[in-house]
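Hello forum,

I keep getting stuck at the same step: I have a sequence, I want structure tokens, and every attempt I make locally crashes halfway through. Rather than fight my setup again tonight, could one of you with a working pipeline run this one for me? It's a single chain of 424 residues.
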Amino acid sequence: MKKKKPWLICSILLALVLPSLSCLPVYGATSKKTVSSVRLNVDCKKQPEAGQKIDTVTVTTSTAQAEILEPAEYYDTEDNEVWIRGEVPLIRVTLAVKDPGQYRFTSSTKVIVSGFQSDVKSKKVQNGGETLDVEIRLKRVGGDLDSVYDCYWNGSSAAWSEVEYADKYEVKLYRGTSLVTTVTAMDNQYYFYPYMTKTGAYRFKVRPLSTYDGGRGPWSERSEEYYITPEYVYTGPAPSGSSGSGWVQDTYGWTYHFSNGQLARSSWLNTDNNWFYLGDDGYMKTNWLYTDNNWFYLNPVSDGTRGAMKTGWLYTDNNWFYLNPVSDGTRGAMKTGWLYADSNWFYLNPVSDGTRGAMKTGWQNINGKYYYLNPVSDGTRGAMKTGYQQISGVWYFLDPGSGELWVNRRTPDGRWADGSGAVS
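Reply #2:
Ran it on my machine without issues. Output:
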């Protein structure tokens, strides 16, 4: 029997082994990087309001590693052509990584949205991390309320037609051309007889109000006259708060009385186009207030709005604070942690150390990562810096998307950021 040549045996073995080797994973290959955060900006041309036509919406991204795969669109509008008061506009958008061989989305990818008081409702990673579905919601649709179409007297009680979405009414009572009082009614009628202390012809007008978004309707026409003759003039005790708006001042401060004489206590009160808080003792609070698991700031200055809840940026106690300006159920609440406002990111102290909520500046270590927040009072004090920044004579590179300091890695233009972040 002829012996097979050694080189032939090797060739046969290689022919059998090589195909199977091509199926094995290649260890040591570079793993995909996670897209740490995605920034989205919503543009719907105009904040959705009741009765407004449902128009197109645009969502763009400034994240270098991602792109919008499918245009954004409103959904779940029940095939309406216009916005309905009370509904929450929802937006869908799909993103894709630009280089799926290098990057991927994961459940830890942070989605940050801005514009038109938007926030993230949900996110879902698809296609093995190559795409990301995001649902965005806008604030609840508000808008003007309808007018009261019918005002009439029911005895000495003022009555009127109900208005959809109104949860209270502002009512003004007149005797002739003189204003007698202004009250807030929680129903569509109000007993005015205790205010009819003089002979004359009484009339009233009313407008609807909505607590959740501050909406209001137009004033109605004045009602027909209700005439009080001398024998029917009210002679009982004066109603509490009969001075007009319900506010009463004494040596201790301001209190507010409802139409039934009850004192407002331990509650928020919306009147005079502002929110006020009445304490357990019935007196209007000022300065910092902790209630409903949040901090609020009530104007302590006697400038015509004393006690009114502040919103937006506030400078007090040698610090800047940000108080939620959105009517989302926590209006006026002090914000902490990361905040996107005025087209910039800020960091507000989340620690109860006596300066909770105060705007941070300079270098900050947040969850083990360093950020640089503008310390200069140039109109953007506290704003998170990104890209190349020269700080105390040293250059650093801060991630263009997240603001994180780059350490021990190459910058986009090939320079080296060392362990301290210094770029050489």
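Residues 6-21 form the longest helix (16 residues). If your local run keeps crashing, start a new thread with the error log.
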